[in-house]
């Protein structure tokens, strides 16, 4: 989940290398698979060359799949490791993973399709369209209604950051039940004045799901299958809760941070556009290339160029109508991360050029490795989606280091259930931080006495002082924590 990830990035045996390539360059195995680049390095510390398989073992990532789009062509797609520890089924380029929040930009296309059909408006009150359910909340008024544009750009001021899913085989709630808080998450409500600020909300995408279902008269899965996925050639993808047999036999199981398969195999997500897409890296590239082609003038795409251009227009926090937007060496790019139970994914693509990378992993502990793969691909294919960060570290004495130790309470509301308290420790002269949910702490490297850099995410941790006493810190320029112990 996006905001949690910014401050809380968590740090298998018998891994089997599986071939499965599309126009694979002869040298890819040597320059990518055998030489994974660290995404963050510390100046002066030795850097060893490491293979992808070795890094998977070190990070407890049982399986992953990579696909690369270069100049409009899928030039490499390959799977590594295992998809299921019981059956020993290997991962290949046809293995399906849960997309997590990558579901959002693809799911958003369904609502945009209805906008083009004149059945839905980007800028009208969504309550005008909803039946049997109405958005409510302390900050909702006739003067400040919630709109579809706000839902898609996370500016509607809605609660419920993300969803934990339901163990496979359990009863799952309806869309309206989820919105009313009758599932395993709180009620989706308007807690900030709409359009006043950016607040990531999977709850907002579940409101969009209900709009699509009620206006189309179909399930979200049926509508997207016929109107979005199949027309883009995404034949190995679905939002369906019950997977068709031809896809079910190729899905990956979910694995925990220790590399063990979850007892439920994987969780189900009734919140379809928020987290419920099953797909492959190659299919995500088909979505990316389809959007790129429309921007270049493709006339028979699923959407018109005007709509796609609006989708790629930056709103608050550099968010488009579905995807996150960013600038890569002067070029507009789009992408999204994805995190479900036992799955960790990332994709990035250029808007006006046919380049894109996708990494999908079946482990809870794959964030660091995914970043390293993105860094390695960026260098190999000369597209700077993720450049290597070099931290210039300073040396602090014992007295200075002791000042940082303690517990820090998050003051920013991120929808976490309970107090979010981070613990900072010092071990062997190195500062580490452990957040709620982390299995192990990760290292913070000092660039000066106030600014530390996460050796995992690259985020800045800026400490506040009163004299020589540390009183708090700011993470990634936006999350405020107060030292409480």
TrEMBL record:
Signal peptide stretch: 1-28
The keyword Transmembrane belongs to this UniProt entry's keyword annotation: no
PANTHER family attached to this UniProt entry: D-ALANYL-D-ALANINE-CARBOXYPEPTIDASE/ENDOPEPTIDASE AMPH (PTHR46825), PENICILLIN-BINDING PROTEIN 4 (PTHR46825:SF12)
Keywords: Hydrolase, Signal
Taxon lineage: Bacteria, Pseudomonadati, Pseudomonadota, Gammaproteobacteria, Alteromonadales
Domain Beta-lactamase-related: 54-365
Annotated protein name in UniProt: Serine hydrolase
Pfam families, sorted: Beta-lactamase
GO molecular function, one term: hydrolase activity
InterPro entries hit by this protein: AmpC-like, Beta-lactam-related, Beta-lactam/transpept-like
């Amino acid at each position: 989940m996006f905001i949690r990830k910014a401050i809380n990035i968590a740090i298998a045996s018998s891994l089997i290398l599986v071939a499965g390539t599309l126009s694979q360059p002869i040298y890819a195995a040597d320059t990518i698979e055998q030489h994974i680049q660290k995404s963050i390095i510390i100046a002066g510390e030795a850097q060893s060359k490491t293979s992808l398989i070795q890094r998977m073992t070190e990070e407890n990532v049982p399986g992953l799949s990579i696909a690369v789009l270069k100049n409009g062509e899928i030039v490499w797609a390959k799977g590594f490791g295992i998809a299921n520890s019981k059956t020993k089924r290997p991962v290949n380029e046809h293995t399906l993973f849960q997309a997590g929040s990558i579901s959002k930009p693809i799911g958003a296309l369904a609502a945009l399709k209805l906008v083009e059909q004149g059945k839905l408006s980007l800028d009208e009150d969504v309550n005008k369209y909803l039946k049997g359910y109405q958005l409510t909340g302390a900050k909702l008024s006739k003067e400040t209604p919630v709109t579809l544009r706000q839902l898609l750009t996370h500016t509607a001021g809605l609660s419920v950051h993300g969803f934990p899913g339901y163990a496979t085989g359990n009863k799952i709630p309806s869309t309206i039940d989820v919105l009313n808080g009758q599932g395993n998450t709180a009620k989706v409500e308007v807690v900030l004045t709409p359009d006043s600020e950016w607040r990531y909300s999977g709850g907002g995408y579940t409101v969009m799901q209900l709009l699509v279902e009620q206006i189309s008269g179909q399930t979200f899965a049926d509508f997207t299958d016929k109107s979005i996925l199949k027309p883009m050639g995404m034949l190995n993808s679905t939002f369906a809760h019950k997977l068709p047999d031809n896809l079910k036999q190729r899905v990956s199981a979910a694995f925990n941070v220790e590399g063990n398969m979850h007892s439920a195999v994987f969780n189900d997500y009734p919140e379809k556009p928020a987290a419920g897409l099953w797909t492959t890296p190659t299919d995500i590239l088909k979505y990316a290339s389809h959007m790129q082609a429309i921007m270049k003038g493709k006339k028979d795409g699923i959407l018109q160029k005007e709509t796609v251009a609006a989708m790629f227009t930056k709103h608050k926090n550099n968010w488009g109508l579905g995807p996150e937007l960013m600038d890569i060496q002067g070029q507009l790019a789009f992408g999204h991360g994805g995190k479900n139970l036992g799955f960790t994914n990332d994709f990035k693509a250029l808007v006006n050029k046919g380049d894109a990378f996708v990494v999908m992993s079946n482990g809870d502990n794959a964030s660091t490795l995914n970043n390293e793969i993105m860094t390695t691909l960026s260098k190999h294919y000369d597209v700077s989606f993720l450049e290597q960060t070099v931290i210039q570290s300073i040396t602090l004495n014992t007295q200075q280091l002791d000042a940082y130790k303690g517990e820090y309470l998050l003051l920013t509301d991120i929808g976490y259930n309970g107090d979010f308290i981070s613990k900072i420790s010092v071990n062997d002269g190195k500062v580490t931080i452990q957040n709620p949910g982390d299995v192990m702490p990760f290292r913070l490297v000092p660039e000066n006495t106030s600014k530390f850099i996460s050796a995992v995410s690259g985020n800045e941790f800026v400490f506040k002082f009163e004299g020589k006493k540390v009183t708090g810190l700011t993470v990634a320029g936006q999350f405020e924590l107060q030292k409480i112990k």
